Amino acid sequence: MPRQERLEAKAKAIKRILDARTREVVGWLYEWNTGEILPRWKDGRREKVIYE
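RESULT FIELD:
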């Protein structure tokens, strides 16, 4: 099966990424037209996060 090219993210993020300690939003998970799910970080990648 040929690899599909990423064209656009869906209109909205599918989940928020929160700092596990402060519960501050640090990013969002986006689903691409290929079915691939990738994070979009506000200020760089974080460790110890939860998805909501």
